[in-house]
Design brief:
Number of helices: 15
Distance between the termini: 49 Å
CATH class of the largest domain: Alpha Beta
Shape: globular
Mean pLDDT: 87
Number of strands: 13
Low-confidence stretches: none
Strand content: 15-25%
Oligomer: single chain
CATH superfamily of the largest domain: Transcription factor LuxR-like, autoinducer-binding domain
CATH topology of the largest domain: Beta-Lactamase
Length: 376
């Protein structure tokens, strides 16, 4: 199979999943196809390296979401997995073989290595650490190769090409979740007041903007619109913005590639985070002006308050369940909750199981999304 079309298909699937993470399993399947692997795993965490809090976990095998593997690993192995602090302390963007994250003695004694990674088919896998927004950490793991060819040069090259796009996927999803646009369309995003949205045609000209982006462009707050063309305020940002748009809107038939940048503002306020995502244009379009790229302008650090009373009333939770649900959405781990309340970790997990039953869900990530949907 040609590597270039496989890369293009994987990249297009990643771009689609940026607007709706329900499409991520399909994207993971395309990644398996491009990299010749049997699956992949994605973790987003924050907090101390030796006891990070999980914000998102997803395990996929050949395009299927394996919640059973997630549940087993998170509940039984995650807290004692010796590889986690080592990966978190490693360099960004460098592929590391799973075996190299364990000592010789741990390869004999580690439950995570001998049981969890064996069950998940990841003992011959690769892992990489990626930087995330607002201090979050991203870990992307590739499961074992799908055949006996192993990790040849072409496969490793493909994985390295996809690495930055995995990081951008997480960054865009975080921005949209905070803007309460978890499952968005190009049109619905224009109605969102929490993030700046710009639609661009294939030549990089502005087609539509939402109210937030219009205010930013009108004020020239780091970015302005001059006769339908976007202009950054500083020369260095102008060069980077032009490069970003050229990659997302290539003039030739090469795959369109998304990216992001920090944009300096005209005041002392924190810089904007600007994401540019290619949009698939139907063919043939006979030269019609269609949306070919989506730009999101994000203000770092904008968070929304979670009202426990609203959570309790809406989800019909007890006071104890409400506290656990709110803390989880705020990023606290089970161990922290147990220490704060003087209870055992088992008691916290029992609260979680009761909440899962009431809400007909099965994962911490589902509960976090549910609670954040009630945030102000």
């Amino acid at each position: 199979m040609s590597r270039q079309p496989a890369f293009g298909r994987a990249l297009a699937a990643i771009h689609e999943a940026m607007l709706d993470d329900a499409r991520w399993p399909a994207a993971a399947g395309r990644i398996d196809e491009a990299c010749g692997t049997s699956g992949s795993e994605l973790f987003v965490t924050e907090g101390p390296r030796d006891a990070p809090r999980i914000l998102f976990v997803g395990m996929y095998r050949r395009g299927l979401h394996r919640e059973d593997l997630e549940r087993i690993y998170v509940e039984d192995y995650y807290r004692d997995d010796e590889s986690i602090p080592r990966l978190a302390a490693g360099p960004y963007g460098r592929l590391i073989h799973a075996r190299d994250l364990y000592t010789a003695e741990e390869l004999k004694s580690s439950a995570a290595w001998n049981e969890a990674l064996s069950l998940g088919g990841c003992q011959d896998g690769l892992r990489a650490r990626l930087g995330g927004p607002d201090g979050t950490r991203i870990a992307w793991s590739l499961a074992d190769p799908a055949d006996a060819d192993g990790w040849g040069a072409a496969r490793v090259t493909m994985v390295n090409r996809l690495l930055p796009h995995i990081g951008q996927f997480v960054s865009v999803r975080q921005a949209l979740v905070r803007a309460e646009a978890r499952s968005a369309t190009l049109t619905s995003l224009l109605d969102n007041p929490r993030v700046g949205v710009v639609h661009l045609d294939r030549r990089g000209r502005v087609l539509e903007v939402n109210d937030r982006a219009r205010d930013i462009l009108r004020n020239g707050d780091g970015l302005s619109d001059r006769y339908g063309r976007l202009r950054a305020r500083t020369p260095a940002d102008k060069v980077r913005l032009d490069e970003l748009l050229a990659s997302a809107l290539p003039a030739s038939a090469v795959p369109a590639v998304g990216g992001w940048m920090l944009l300096r503002r005209s005041s002392v306020l924190p810089r904007f985070v600007v994401h540019v995502k290619p949009v698939d244009v139907p063919r043939p379009d006979y030269g019609a002006r269609r949306v070919a790229a989506l730009m999101l302008i994000v203000e770092p650090g904008r968070r929304h308050r979670i009202d426990p009373e609203v959570v309790a009333t809406t989800l019909e939770l007890t006071p104890g369940e409400t506290q656990v649900a709110v803390w989880l959405a705020e990023g606290k781990g089970v161990r922290e909750m147990a220490e704060a309340t003087g209870r055992t970790e088992g008691a916290i997990y029992r609260h979680l199981k009761q909440i899962y039953q009431k809400q007909s869900i099965s994962r911490q990530a589902d509960l976090v999304r549910l609670v954040l949907s009630l945030a102000e």
